[in-house]
Write a structure and sequence with these properties.
The complex is a heterodimer of chains A (587) and B (201).
Chain A: H1 2-31, H2 36-52, H3 62-85, H4 102-113, H5 123-126, H6 129-159, H7 169-195, E1 205-215, E2 218-225, H8 230-239, H9 260-284, H10 288-315, H11 318-321, E3 325-326, H12 347-360, H13 375-386, H14 397-417, E4 422-423, E5 426-427, H15 430-455, H16 458-461, H17 469-483, H18 498-514, H19 517-528, H20 544-575
Antiparallel strand pairs in A: 1-2, 4-5
Chain B: H1 2-34, H2 36-39, E1 43-46, E2 49-53, H3 93-109, E3 117-118, E4 132-134, H4 135-149, H5 153-162, E5 164-165, E6 176-178, H6 179-193, H7 197-200
Antiparallel strand pairs in B: 1-2, 4-6, 5-6
Classes of the chains: A mainly alpha (587), B mainly alpha (201).
Amino acid sequence: MNAVFLLTAMVLSIAVLLAWPLGGYMAQIFSGSPSWAFRILAPVENGFYRLAGVDPRTGMSWKRYALLWLLFNMIGGVFLFLLLLLQKDLPLNPQHFSDVPAPSAFNTAASFISNTDWQDYSGESTMSYLSQMLGMAVQSFLSAASGIALAVAMIRGFSRAEKEDIGNVWVDLTRSTLYLLIPLSLLWALFLVEQGAIQNFAAYVHAHLIQPFGENGKAVTEQIIAMGPVASQEAIKLLGTNGGGFFGANSAHPFENPTALTDFFQMVAIFLIPFALAVYFGHEVKDRRQGWAVLAAMILLFTPLALLSEKADLAGNLQLAALHVDQAHKPALAGGGNMEGVEDRFGAAGSALFGAMATATSTGAANSAYDSFMPLSGMVNLFLMQLGEVTPGGVGTGLASMLAFAVIAVFLGGLMIGRTPEFLGKKIESYEIKMASFAILIMPLLVLIGTAVAVSTPGGREAVLNPGPHGFSEIFYALTSAANNNGSALGGLDANTTFYNIITGLCILLNRYLAYLPLLAMAGSLARKKRISAGAGTLQTASPLFIGLLIGVVLLVGALNFIPALALGPVAEQLAPPPPSAPILAH
Amino acid sequence: MLRSLRAGLVIFLLLVVSTGLVYPLVVTGLAQLFFPHQANGSLIRQDGRVVGSGLIGQYFDKPWYFWARPSATSPVPYDAENSGASNLGPNNPELIKHVRERIQVLQKADPQAKGPIPVDLVTSSGSGLDPDISVAAALYQVPRVAHAGGISETTMRQLVRDNTTGPFLGLIGEPTVNVLKLNLALHDRYVADKTHGAAGK
């Protein structure tokens, strides 16, 4: 148990320590104040604007910003869709994979432009190196940059006063990519390769087995090992909270995540930019404590849930204990715990922590099979997504949603003391509350309606692998993941059917392209407002009291929306007696 | 509007070139320059032939080799062009059935083994390619492998120690034994001693 606390504390503190300076660096990038990065890369950046005919000094109204943001994402979607449809005859396809069928190509395009990276395919048996490199990896960068742009624009709503513009979308996208995502990914990718992740364009390798074996009457004498440009994609997969793995097994695959050390830093990488954005928020509104308050709320929400999940998975499976299987955690001998779907080098607790971090952000990467998690651990994954991905959430989107919750919390605080609510010197009025509520309520609607549709249609039910309440969890998880732009899955569900390709594709697009536009509208409205100075009745939004209120609002909204459905899935599975077909051995 | 469309297209294409061509090619160049062994799959060669990767597990079923964890890949176990897990839920009767079958196979193969079976030997991994077993799982198999391979248990335990990786700084990760590397060390001995149809053929 101590090991569980220690691991969790180490991952979180290293992420915070790295996010601290990174948040300051981001403040330099987005305000355009000169830093070393500008001196080196400024000619490249300015070249981009010249070629595109963009004046970087011209700001945009929220409407224009939102419209061009949508346009940029649409261009990316069409590009990726076509790339997948035409894959067969394009270069860098040494395994001669055929074109990706249209439903799957639609789903994948929707999924990758929106930072969801829900994957209905297995990379090493479907996608050419070109599709991975120019499709998946590119969108992993650009969807992350799009998310960051959203947060940056939204924060400007608070930091600016009596202004129409909330920044220039082309500048925000270009700077996020050039100054932040590419340099960090480059360093991280090289570290991954040093540890054993692969990075090549070779055809799959044939290895001659020292001990051939028979399978279904056929002699197996060789192992064919998939290759590819993995590390470059792996780096941005985690830093950009994307989660779209090169291989089917995602971060469980030794070529994506070769050692316990890479696993540790994969977890740090997942939280790095979301944490740094909270720090950046404090810089931008000229009150660092505001950033730390938001960060504290995120960590306080996340930690107990992660510990619960780790503890449940480390306790192991009662049905295996009845078979006298040794699941004890023994230092220097065995990790123990629930090891189905878990890699030995990561261990059960380490995998549960990874799962919690991947679902608390929009990452959805997996270093183990979430479908084989103990019911409570699986429930933590589900609930972390259902809180609206704010603990700390995806790059940009997490902070944006958290600020929407903060606006609601300020409003509730204002109601309690009977004063006009204000946040960071801006009056919060009915327009802001409407926009924040709209943004928060789209996701639960998509999840619950989507799940209801899936469980009531044959196409939705037939795809399930596991029997009983766990089968319901598989469907509920798929819709939760899609509508939160998370992308993780309970892999037992056969998601590559026309039904699931369309329903998850729609949920992905509707959440990503509806839920954040109201927040940009709110930013536009806030930027126009005058700044008022804090009075005696102003709720201090960097105080422990406010942090508590914010946590309460997030939990209340999440719990009210999802507890009934959770009761039908993981809760029922946890409480149900073992099925009669698995008799317990007498000893 | 047409101006904006042009700006969008140009910025998009420039970013595609930066993130989709320049960046991965720079990573590939540096990786191939500084870490060619890792970048190409940590391949292990014997007599000029690739026999596997130090990071990808293989299937073993002869008693004189250590066995790896069960693998859920199809159509063959440890299929390194189709990674994946069983995805069976913790209460799925199918999972319990598999575990019972694996227990029976191990108990039959390792009659001298003492104590309960370590969990990783009866559960399949997340990738289906797990290169490792726990130290406990290796020690559990020592009596069988030593007996079948004609090597003393003491030597066998030493070989296990030689191929063990502890948690990083004693904190991060779990203690593991690389099965392919351990078996390659055994294989070398069998070849030198001309025992066991040596190369396992």
